[in-house]
Amino acid sequence: MQNKEKIKTYALILLTICFVITAPMLFQAKMEDRRQYEAFLNEFYANLDNTLYSIEYFLSEEEKGVTTLASIEHNLETTHLLLRMGDKTVNSHISAQPRFFAGRITQHPNDEGTLTEEQQSELEKVREGLQYMKEGLYSEETGQENKHLSAKEFNAIIEQGASIGAP
């Protein structure tokens, strides 16, 4: 009987030591994952804001330049790549929206520097979708992105914005 008690005591001591060693490691890993997700949200929000600004500037200007349109296309592609990288490196639950961001601005303005009605409409749709995403990710508390969003909430906002601005 005493042998069983010794074995139980040693087993409890061993389990306690394992717990004391692994609990802080698990906590640190969880905190690092959270930090990476918050950094991703910050970068994505900043890029989204920059893209939206580029589109609004382009739509408000009298003279539409190819350079500005190329900048918008580049910003949309960067936003798409951020989503893909977020899915691969930060949180596998982040989903990309390739049809919304990639390849939306394919035709350049005509020789006069103006967009066709179709191009103008497409750019307006993209702007509306991006505006929805920005507002959904915004936090009144911080004045920038809401760091308390889960990946599921983030995806819902991005998917809804993509459907608003869908081609």
Q: What's this, in brief?
A:
Helix content is 74%, strand content 0%. The chain has helices at residues 2-60, 66-90, 98-101, 117-137, 151-164.
Q: How would you sum up this structure, described in words?
A:
Keywords: Membrane, Transmembrane, Transmembrane helix. The chain crosses the membrane at residues 7-27. This protein is an all-alpha fold and 167 residues long. It has one domain. Helices cover 74% and strands 0% of the residues. It contains 5 helices and no strands. Helix 1 runs antiparallel to helix 2 (66-90), helix 1 (2-60) runs antiparallel to helix 4 (117-137) and helix 4 (117-137) packs antiparallel against helix 5 (151-164). The longest helix is centred in the first third of the chain and has 59 residues, at 2-60. The radius of gyration is 24 Å and the shape is rod-shaped.
